[in-house]
Amino acid sequence: MKRTTAAIVTTLALLTTATAQSAFGQAVPRPQGLGEDTAKAVPPFKMFDNLYYVGLDFVNAYVIQTSGGLILVDTLFGQFGDYTAKAMQELGLNPKDVKYIVITHGHDDHYGGLKKMKELTGARVIMADADWKLMEDTVRKEGDAAVASKLIPRDMTTKDGDTLALGNTTIKLYVTPGHTAGVTSLDFPVFDNGKQYRVFMWPGPTLQSMDLPMMEAFLATSKRLQTLAKGADVWLHSHPWSVSLFQKYEKLKGRKPGDPNPYVNPGEIQVFLEQRIEDTEKRIAEVKAKTAKP
Predict the structure, then answer these.
(1) Closest by alpha carbon to 197, among 44, 50, 46?
(2) pLDDT per position in the chain (294 positions), as tens?
(3) CA 271 to mean position of chain CA atoms
């Protein structure tokens, strides 16, 4: 299966044109017109020695390669339900080597391809309890057809502070509520030409609710991550625009021997967290002011 780089070029064009206004405080607003209905495949690519991108122009999916097999992070949705498998094959990876699937949170664009990938790989599936429930409730409301095509029995339920070890790789898992009640963040090592770096992946860094308890949970998570993500070299997200993922890839393709990996940017997540805290505190104050009794 061959693709040109046209999809990535198109994505870059979208990212540099006018963007939609952010309703809930994103670092970089979503590019105008980009969503589930318009999502397109992009050529998969290698980010680090042991980390690969197998997502779309709209939503991310990653493969972490270990000495004991592969870990897939998120499974896309809809017509792209088996795309991660095809992307792996294009990169020379065998989908049958996937031992674990981590679903970062219970929104359809992240779990929609789960059943197909579970059936194809036989991998164990990991999600936080609150988002197992969110997924189950959402799919059941969609009706019997959705249940048959999307829902799997509960497998592994992660708790805050759990670790996932496979081969030579250990991933720390944190439950970081706010975007949903059970967003699971990942902290793991990657290598670039043999040199080790630390990735912190916060897959829920956008506030999706004006419900005060959820806003306060998002604020608490943002403050907590200032400590948890301290010292991280690489920040990843579950959507590409907020971390300039494709722009960094263009730099990666053009780098010369000895040049740094453009995904390595220590301090980037801390700047983002400061922005999220300031923005969320402002939004919480506005909500409290509106609901305060005269």
Answers:
(1) 50
(2) 333 333 333 333 333 333 333 334 445 677 778 788 899 999 999 999 999 999 999 999 999 999 999 999 999 999 999 999 999 999 999 999 999 999 999 999 999 999 999 999 999 999 999 999 999 999 999 999 999 999 999 999 999 999 999 999 999 999 999 999 999 999 999 999 999 999 999 999 988 888 999 999 999 999 999 999 999 999 999 999 888 999 999 999 999 999 999 999 999 999 999 999 999 999 999 999 988 766
(3) 19
